[in-house]
């Protein structure tokens, strides 16, 4: 069994609250299911797919819905442009996924550089009880870029 989360299941970003919440839920549910299947010695295994940026039309409707809010639309489009160099094809993501399944892996992370870059800082922020800060790594817009998004009317 494969459950698909996202980098957003570990690191939320502005304007993705509901998307991130659903991905956080998938991460927690899948890990709990992993433990339960092991407790039952079930003959089935669960894996968690955590892709980074994959070339798809997933955000097309976000851009369309933001049509009436030019600053938000520009922000979304900039984020998509910033991610483009890092985006992998769906076929490449599938190859990584099936390879991981064949190897019995729980964590299916086709672009580990995303989590490897973002997660240590996030965990340190939590451990030290600091306020969250937006990262400016791996092609993600700098925190200053987000400020103008919320000034649009």
Averaged pLDDT? 84
Spatial separation of the terminal alpha carbons: 45 Å
Count of DSSP strands? 3
Number of helices: 6
Overall shape: globular
Gyration radius (Cα, Å) is 17 Å
Largest sheet: 3 strands, parallel
Q: Provide the structure class.
A: mainly alpha
Identify low-pLDDT runs: 137-141
Order of helices and strands: EHEHHHEHH
User: Strand order of the main beta sheet, please?
Assistant: 1-2-3
Helix content: 40-55%
Strand coverage percent: 5-15%
In words, what does this structure look like?
- Helix 1 links the parallel strand 1 (2-4) and strand 2.
- This protein is mostly helical and 153 residues long.
- 50% of the residues lie in helices and 5% in strands.
- The protein has 6 helices and 3 strands; from the N terminus they run βαβαααβαα.
- A 3-stranded parallel β-sheet has the order 1-2-3.
- The protein is globular, with a radius of gyration of 17 Å.
């Amino acid at each position: 069994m494969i459950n698909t989360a996202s980098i957003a299941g570990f690191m939320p970003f502005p304007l993705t609250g509901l998307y991130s919440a659903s991905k956080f839920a998938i991460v927690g549910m899948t890990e709990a299911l992993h433990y339960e299947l092991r407790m039952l010695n079930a003959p089935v295994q669960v894996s968690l797919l955590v892709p980074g940026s994959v070339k798809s039309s997933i955000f097309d409707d976000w851009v369309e819905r933001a049509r009436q809010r030019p600053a938000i639309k520009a922000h979304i489009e900039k984020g998509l442009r910033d991610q483009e160099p890092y985006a992998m094809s769906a076929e490449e993501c599938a190859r990584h996924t099936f390879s991981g399944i064949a190897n019995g892996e729980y964590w299916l992370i086709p672009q580990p550089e995303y989590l490897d870059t973002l997660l240590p800082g996030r965990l340190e922020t939590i451990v030290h009880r600091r306020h969250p800060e937006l990262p400016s790594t791996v092609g993600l817009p700098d925190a200053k870029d987000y400020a103008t998004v919320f000034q649009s009317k």
